[in-house]
Amino acid sequence: MAMVKRAQQGGYAVGGFNMHNPETTQALIRGAEKANSPIFLQVGRAIVPHLGLEEAFRMTRHELDKSNVEAAIHLDHGTYDEVFLALKLGFDSIMFDGSHLSFEDNVEATRHIVAVAHSFGVPVEAELGKIPDAGTDVDWTDYYTKVDEAEEFVAKTGVDLLAVSAGVFHGIPPTRPLPLAIDRIRAIRDVTGIPLVLHGASGVPLEDLRAAIGAGIHKLNADTDLRHAFRRGVEQTWALGDRQFEVAMAEGRRLMIDATAEKMTEYGCAGMASAPEAAAIS
Ligand SMILES: [Zn+2]
Fold first, then answer.
1. 125 CA from centroid of ligand 1 (Å)
2. CA within 13 Å, CB half, 65
3. How many whole angstroms from 200 Cα to the centroid of ligand 1?
4. What distance in Å separates the CA atoms of residue 21 and residue 233, rounded to the nearest whole number?
5. Residue positions annotated with a catalytic role
6. Which residues lie closer than 8 Å to 123 by C-beta, 6 or more apart?
7. Separation between Cα atoms, residue 177 and residue 123, nearest integer Å
8. Helix/strand/coil for 275
9. How far is the CA of 242 from the centre of ligand 1 (A)?
């Protein structure tokens, strides 16, 4: 949470990026080292059915232990059960996604999770409003986070970070994305006072991201752009003919390191890693 508090004070956003295997985890960590940036290393919703939460956590922890980077291992879009398993495993930060629930049930579940997580010293991100997947047909008025609900939700749950729906999709929409609802983000910031999170930041124009940061977004989640960087490395290697897996993975990792560091420059978190001594006392 110290990473995001500093971002709020400093007027920038910290990136939240998903790990998928050892090479992508290494790419994120080395990208953060290269940019001298804090980072949320996220265990996302695709890897849980593939590897399991425990294995994904151990892999991330193992790679992170080899580095001095300032990082939080974060559960992204956790279910009710996954959140408690994540607390037991030792995650640094969790997101509970109750956005499919009714407002009242989301408040109730999130409030309980916040109480338990805080007793472990773990901050909680929650989501209000729905963030649609790219390709779905959307009437945004049903999806946007409502300002009055955000105020009530944060007051009742004590959540540390709130993911808002403000015009972006998960993944990259096929057409040019809508302009972000910057006024709505600012209004939510003003009534809640907590740092806000924007998911699906891949493909959003940089000037929109900057405006969102100015309006209260201090954690930006992006996955698609980094996956595309890794994929490019793999495809370019195999386009040359048959090569060892390791050669293709190494090239994917190399391009993803650069793409990660580039995101950090865009988000303003490059150069913002705290010195190890400062991290120890915060
Ligand atoms: Zn998300």
1. 11
2. 6
3. 6
4. 15
5. 76
6. 1, 93, 94, 117, 160, 161
7. 31
8. coil
9. 36
Cα 178 to ligand 1 centroid, rounded to whole Å: 18
Query: pLDDT per position in the chain (282 positions), as tens?
Result: 899 999 999 999 999 999 999 999 999 999 999 999 999 999 999 999 999 999 999 999 999 999 999 999 999 999 999 999 999 999 999 999 998 999 999 999 999 999 999 999 999 999 998 778 877 877 777 789 999 999 999 999 999 999 999 888 887 665 666 678 999 999 999 999 999 999 999 989 999 999 999 999 999 999 999 999 999 999 999 999 999 999 999 999 999 999 999 999 999 999 999 865 554 444
Q: The tokens 């990473």 sit on which residue?
A: 3
Long-range contacts of 199-207 (CB under 8 A, 24+ apart): 199/127, 199/131, 199/163, 199/168, 199/170, 200/131, 200/134, 200/168, 200/169, 200/170, 200/171, 201/168, 202/171, 202/172, 202/226, 203/172, 203/173, 203/177, 204/168, 204/177, 204/180, 205/177, 206/266
Structure tokens at 218: 């201090």
Q: What predicted TM-score, i.e. pTM, was given to this entire model?
A: 0.94
Around ion ligand 1, residues with a beta carbon closer than 5 Å are: 199
Looking up tokens 């300002």 gives: 147
**CA atoms lying within 13 Å on the CB side of residue 253:** 17
Full set of structural domains in the chain with CATH: 2-129+139-281 (3.20.20.70)
Name, in order, each residue with C-beta under 8 angstroms of 55's C-beta and a sequence gap of 6 or more: none
Longest dimension (CA), the chain: 58
Q: What token pair was written down for 84?
A: 């408690």
3-state secondary structure of 43: strand
